[in-house]
Amino acid sequence: MAKPVSAATDGEQSIVPAAREKTPPPNETIGDYLIRRIEEQGVGHVFGVPGDFILSFFKKLEGSSLQIVNTCDEQGAGFAADAYARLRGLGVVCITYTVGGLKVVNAVAQAFAERSPVVVVSGAPGIAEQATNGLIHHRVRNFDSQQKIFAEITVATAVLDNPNAAADDIDRALELARRHSRPVYIELPRDMVAARIPPGSGRALPLNASDPDVLGFALAEAAERIASAGRPVIVAGVELHRFGLQDALAEFAHATGIPVASTLGGKSVFPESDAAYLGVYNGAMGGDGVRNYVEQSDCVILLGPLMTDINLGVYTARIDRSASVYAGEDRVSVGFRSYDGVKMEDFVRGLAKRPWTQRALPPFVHPGRPAPFAASDRPMTVAALFQQLNAFLDDDMVVVADPGDALFGAEDLYIHDGAHFLAPAYYCSLGFAVPAAIGVAAAAPRLRPLVLVGDGAFQMTGMELSTIARFGMSPIVIVFDNDGYGTERPMLDGAFNDVHRWNFARIPEVLGAGLGVKVTTERELAAALERAKANTQSYSLIQVMLDRHDRSPALSRLTARLAERVAKG
Ligand SMILES: Cc1ncc(C[n+]2csc(CCOP(=O)(O)OP(=O)(O)O)c2C)c(N)n1
Ligand SMILES: [Mg+2]
């Protein structure tokens, strides 16, 4: 029986506090050093699947404080590590050479695109074996083929083929993962796991701070713009979460009295209960109140917004850049003037600390707490499903949404304080949500994952419920069963959007664990949600039967607005 994931960690703080350095033991091996440095980052779990090129490292992991969470498939481990990194500031996926490594490429690409610091540790043939240049199993083309592929989707790659350089290479990779909040790749040839490193090696990179003069100018210009604006508004995005800037955002908003909208990807970065919260701004896809407020503002302050097509309501957003203040990882700018050498983190913290004159909050309609839902015997609709989920959500839940209508509709969910919203709202890889729940359960055992996933997406990675069952995790999984690829049908339909129908609710019989319920009416869903809430010992899967042409209000809003624009010509 697998040992359950420990429930004793401190939970969901986004950036883990500075590394706790241990005294290095004498005669440390490369494998031991890598494990110690990972432990010192505040990481408690490693997700992965072993293979012969990484087995001896798995054995070392087993003897360490790190808990191995081995998944059914490497892609699942990649998504789990990504979700873990989003909550804990760093996540680790450990796999064998190429057959495992290349299966995490999609998950790592998503982590790169969405700025999630995932550390990939891959086994490889030993250096001595590679020297023979033989056709060793799992080899693709050259022995460095895998490293070259990962170079494109990471901010650092390190091949630990030299014991004298290994400690430096490990430290550099871990530091860069944190600094850029993006993935790194560490390759560990199997005959290097037990190689000794010289004592005293390993060092931190030089400090990477903003240029203080330029930062001062940028802040002064931004402050003047903001103070002289009649109707400023903050649009907050997911990069604030990645860099642990939620408190600075709240401090800035409260000190100034400026209301805050979030992007879809940045949902939950600002407490939705706060009187200053406007709702999700998403161009034509968002609600009218927040849309009008943002688009009529004379100073939009965009903080960590990750300006993607989905976050901008598929380019229906209208923000006047000449009157905006922008701070993202790519640049900091005021109007059209960009400031080199200024880091987003320093700029946002600097804004929070300025001596502001507080304004009274202007009148606007707060999105408000959800009303209780009176369930009837009506057949389920997507709209009712989201209303019911809204009334069900708690402050100890993390909503994990898979791309598809599960993500679009989730825009209107009310995320309670202390809870989180996780979704790949930019790269949009299907199959994220179920394995991500594994990462969430490990990273923040206090929080319960509520997984929203389409029937099509579930068929890609949903059988990671097996891992969930094995480790005794208890997410609630809502399968939106609309008979295929519903998001694609309004764009262009054909038999290619159909999938084979599954009896999702009977998966617990196959796995010998879990609660499965199929619902067709609102009343059945209400009862199923209550049963799921009470079932804290295993996962719950609720298969919600929906009409194949039904859509969430958010998706309908978008298509309606796009239709208006098309009609106008
Ligand atoms: C890995 C991956 N493959 C394909 C797509 C393209 N795609 C976007 S939405 C979608 C349909 C998803 O179907 P389902 O999970 O049932 O959700 P629904 O659209 O029905 O709400 C597809 C295939 C994608 N985003 N990711
Ligand atoms: Mg579907």
Structural overview:
With about 575 residues, the chain is α/β, with parallel strands linked by helices. The protein has a seven-stranded mixed beta sheet, with helices on both faces. Strands 2-1-3-4-6-5 form a six-stranded parallel beta sheet, sandwiched between helices. Strand 14, helix 14 and strand 15 form a beta-alpha-beta unit. The radius of gyration is 24 Å and the shape is globular. The N terminus is likely disordered. Bound molecules: thiamine diphosphate (TPP) and magnesium ion.
Strand and helix layout:
Layout: H1 30-40, E1 45-49, H2 55-62, E2 67-70, H3 74-88, E3 91-95, H4 105-113, E4 118-124, H5 127-131, H6 145-151, E5 157-159, H7 166-180, E6 184-189, H8 212-228, E7 232-236, H9 238-242, H10 246-256, E8 260-262, E9 277-280, H11 288-295, E10 299-303, E11 324-327, E12 332-334, E13 337-338, H12 344-353, H13 382-392, E14 397-401, H14 405-410, E15 420-422, H15 433-443, E16 448-454, H16 455-461, H17 465-470, E17 476-481, H18 507-511, E18 515-519, H19 522-534, E19 540-545, H20 553-568
Parallel strand pairs: 1-2, 1-3, 3-4, 4-6, 5-6, 7-8, 7-10, 8-9, 10-11, 14-15, 14-16, 16-17, 17-19, 18-19
Antiparallel strand pairs: 11-12, 12-13
Helix pairs in contact: 1-7, 3-4, 3-15, 8-12, 10-12, 13-19
Which characteristics define this entry?
single chain; 569 residues; alpha/beta; seven-stranded mixed beta sheet; 20 helices; globular; binds thiamine diphosphate; binds magnesium ion
Work out the number of β strands.
19
- Beta-strand content: 15-25%
Q: How does the helix and strand content classify structurally?
A: alpha/beta
Radius of gyration: 24 Å
Low-confidence stretches are: 1-18
Mean of residue pLDDT values: 91
Q: Please estimate the helix content.
A: 25-40%
Quote the distance from N terminus to C terminus: 64 Å
Morphology: globular
Which ligands are bound? thiamine diphosphate, magnesium ion
Question: How many strands, what sense, and barrel or not for the largest sheet?
Answer: 7 strands, mixed
> What is the tally of helical segments?
20
Q: How would you write the strand order of the largest sheet?
A: 9-8-7-10-11-12-13
